[in-house]
Amino acid sequence: LEGQVTVANRSDQVWPAAAWNATGPVVNLSYHVRALDETVLVNDGLRTPLPFDLGPERSVAFGARVALPEKPGRYLLEFDLVQEGVGWFAVHGSPSARQVVECWR
């Protein structure tokens, strides 16, 4: 599954997009899948790389890859950025984006 997302860099740092040109650990978009009661079902979703290094006060819209659970139901999908080898942005106070999704197969 792929969905359109917009990411905005409100920091004063450049977010490196690709390992071959990165000045530090790369930043990827990923997600967590939770049950509606907030229980984490998937903590470490698929990674979608930023399309380019994202500088301060810039934003970009791009397609994000998502693998939803096989079991039909309603889930809370939480998109977050992750700096590989460092951590998730939301843990450090950055807002994540949450949306309830319904899966049926």
Q: Please, what is the average pLDDT? A: 91
For the record, give the distance between the C-alpha atoms at the N and C termini, rounded to a whole number.
Answer: 13 Å
Strand content: 35-45%
Figure out the total of helices. Answer: 0
Global morphology: elongated
The description of the largest β-sheet is: 6 strands, antiparallel
The total of beta strands comes to 8
Order of helices and strands: EEEEEEEE
What does this 3D model show about the protein?
By secondary structure, the chain is an all-beta fold. It has strands at 2-8, 27-34, 40-42, 48-49, 59-65, 73-83, 87-88, 97-103. Strands 2, 3, 4, 6, 7 and 8 form a 6-stranded antiparallel β-sheet that branches. A two-stranded antiparallel sheet has the order 1-5. The chain is elongated and about 40 Å long.
Fold blueprint:
Blueprint: E1 2-8, E2 27-34, E3 40-42, E4 48-49, E5 59-65, E6 73-83, E7 87-88, E8 97-103
Antiparallel strand pairs: 1-5, 2-3, 2-4, 2-6, 6-7, 6-8
At a glance:
With 105 residues, the protein is mainly beta. The chain is 0% helix and 45% strand. The mean pLDDT is 91.
Brief descriptors of the model:
single chain, mainly beta, 6-stranded antiparallel β-sheet, two-stranded antiparallel ribbon
